[in-house]
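Hi support team,

I submitted a single chain yesterday and got back a structure, but I'm not sure I'm reading the token output correctly. Could someone confirm the output below corresponds to the sequence I sent? I've pasted both exactly as they appear in my results page.

Thanks,
R.
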Amino acid sequence: MRGLLRRGLPVAPGGTVAVLLELRGVVARSIDPSDEVSRTAALNGVLRGLLARFPNARYASPARALFGLPPAAQGVNLTSRRQLAAELAGHEVHHFRKRVEPRLVEIVADELLADAERFARPVFVAPRLAVSAEREVIVRDPFAWEVAEHEEHLSRMWAAIYAARAALLTVERLISLEADSSETGRAAVTAAWRWATARAQALTYTSGFATDQSPDDLVALAGWAPSLAVDQVDRLVAATQGGRATREQFVADLHAETELSTAWSTGFQTSPPTAPNDAEGLIA
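Hi R., thanks for writing in. Yes, this is the structure output for that exact sequence:
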């Protein structure tokens, strides 16, 4: 981590972070795990994501500056980044370097390990796509039809999962921005529709094709969603008409479901549990 801190982000291929390139979360996200450049790009993405979600609000901006992300300018040396980070944190530079900086580095290292741990067990990974300049003609053969149908359902399911993830992230971003409640409310409704559609597609896929994954496992890949009772989840899924309903049809079907609507929207209004690293005074 000290080598990473000294050089700053972005990490360049061939740097002094070889051990970080072997982390499960980095390997899993790389386009080509056998290629160092690909894993380096994945590592940069992981680090940017972790620093964007740094678990201590007071030190989030200083931590990003320390590692070379905005508000720090790209390419500046560690001394300059440290001075900026200390200023942002409201500390004298010497105190920051001795007391605060080691803790920030430790937190980033812990977050990297926690991210890797999430990939410790086998996960269902979206199929990689390759550029094809030719039309994919399917021959008149039952096996070829079966393979094509499987890919159809698999593609629809992953499209729905990623759409649900995008919708859920939109809600969280608007909440963080303290956006107008009506805008956040509309986004929450869209998230409910996307999430329920993803579950409908996951149910269709797992019931029609052999897989070790359950619908719950697959939908969980979209990210956190408000906790609902089983009958409420079933009602949401039913309103998607097997994943085919438009947003307007979904909303119209659930128009009278005030209790369900309240349960979903209230889930976003509840403050998330405070992370251990976010305790006041833990760093300084």
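A quick pointer for reading it: Residues 2-117 form one domain. Let us know if anything else looks off.

Best,
Support desk
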